[in-house]
Structures
1.
Amino acid sequence: MIKAIVVDDERLVRKGFISLIDWPSFGVVIVGEAGDGNAALALLREQEADLLFVDITMPGMSGFELIRQVRQQFPAIRCVVLTCHHEFDYVQEALRLGAVDYIVKTLLEVENADETISRLVERVRWEDTARESLSRRDGAAGLAADRALLLVPLKGQESEEELFQLPLAKNQPMIALQGQWIVPLQSRLSGEGLQRELAALPAGRWQAALVSGLQGRPCRELEQVLGKAARLALFYYGGAELPPKLEFAELALAAEGAAGEELFPASGHQLRWALERGDWDSFTAEVLLRRPAPEVIADFGHSLLESWSPLLLSPAEAAELEAAISGNVDWCSWKQWLREFAGHVQRRMIELGLSKEVMFCLIRAVLYMKQNAGLKINQGDVAAHINMSRGYFSQCFARLAGESFGEVLRGMRLELAKALLLETAHPVHEIACRSGFEDDRYFSRLFRERVGRLPSEYRAQGEKL
């Protein structure tokens, strides 16, 4: 039997709630009641319980604080929020603190009480089954099932609470493995059946896969292999089947290597892939060969926007690409994003009336300027580096940037100075020199004109953040 306690500061509400439901028919017994948080904690020290029904608004200790205390002192007890309709906005906070469900008192009637309590009891029993499974996962016995549904959070903030939406997870033990979850499949489940199951998950928050070859594998081995290789395998999965089908033996081989630890291809920053089809094919093939971690690819995407706005992207285009990054959950979606970036670069080239070779030279020039902004370079040095006459380079560069070479270089040097001010303890006069400025007084004056603060003020404010 599930032992429950009801906590509400209104005695008539408590009595009414208890008498409304035929608790024994659900395998539940009410073992106590309390009128406030302190009384509830005192009761829990004397009376064993599995479930606590908690009113949110109570004098003294609030329902929020009671839930927090219960989670700390009695972690095995599940809390259910009792709320009125006008308190509904508070429910999310209670769930964040660890409540497993909520009941709106003003909407609870004889007609819907059975469904509400049935759902809750099913949840408690499911959690008990999962906990029992977790308590056995370090044992020597291997997994009985050969296949399992693997569930991987996409953004790292998802909770196993959301997995309760899966009908399959309600009836099968669920095992947590390094921030991932598997549900062993004891029977055959069709592709359509899996799709129906996964449709219950919140969109855009979970990745699922069907992993086979698990029978007899200890949970410790599953945790090691899936923790190292599953996310990367799903990220680069190129098959058409949904959910993806993965073989454990192949994942184990990948886990032994250094997949995901490679740096992003250096050719990516040169942008030839954005203008030439052959370079696009070589670039994407190298990414697949190296298989850098998803975080590395995301950093590359952000660096593209930071480096090439507004030279190659309009503010609207940059904002659209920035917003789309959050939806890039795999390499396929990132390739589409990079194609869109390349499309903007190509349109920019056409608008400027430049050839591909001139565009390549200008991109190389910008990269060279950024890499050497702290040195005493000038327009002639950059033109020579890209094998272009100084006059023609000056004309083409001004067309691309919308301002003179000198203005762009000063802007790059100021950005370098900002970074040095925040990341080093060098005195201002030394930072001026390291940023390519010969006169520290000119540097300070220009910095205040462009940034709105003196270098020392900029550093002091940054230290406070």
2.
Amino acid sequence: MNSATVTSVTTIDPAEAKHFGAMAAEWWDPKGSSAMLHRLNPVRLGYLRTQIDTQWHGDETGFTPLAGKRALDVGCGAGLLCEPLARLGADVTGLDAAAENIAAAQIHAAASGLSIDYRTGSVEDLADATYDLVTSLEVIEHVTDPAGFVTGLARALAPGGLLVLSTPNRTALSRLALITFAEGSGTIPRGTHDWNKFLTPDELTPLVEAAGLRVIDVRGLAFSVAKGFVLSDDTGLDYFVTAVRD
């Protein structure tokens, strides 16, 4: 596995890296500190699959729509998204600020028989590498410079490539659901979120466009008592932004 060192130019917040690194041992425990991410993963993957098939006109029934393509997941944690992307056929690179998460990701991938290039560092460390698919889900609200972070993601995207972001919206609903309830009850570890760092769609979309990409979809991620997390036209809690490099 390759390893990258963090450069002097970085959007990593050391306190955030420490917070998430402390949860490394529980990333793959569906009842542990990352339980919320496990519940989010099915709807995330469904949304990603739709965007992938639309972008590359794939066979919706095929098992490996990313065969022959390179994918990058920034803020990958211990690989909850990287492993499904690898199973979809991609040559996957996972990047995370916390070395503890990368170590856990490497161990789990090896036990799963998957070859994934995990690296510790910041998106700014990727130099001239480019990828067909770049994902960064529930990450931008934890960086020091959202505009710089988006610029780094865009720089890593190849021509014709697809960028998918997700993040909580800065609304009264997200404060109530994610901080007052989820963190207050211990469903999410306390201190995971700073509501003031959440971005609205009207704030995030211009950052993506300023980085030279074209936004093609904004879709809400809502919670249903009956179904759990679902895609929605309501972006009040959380949302996806998908963009392309033409």
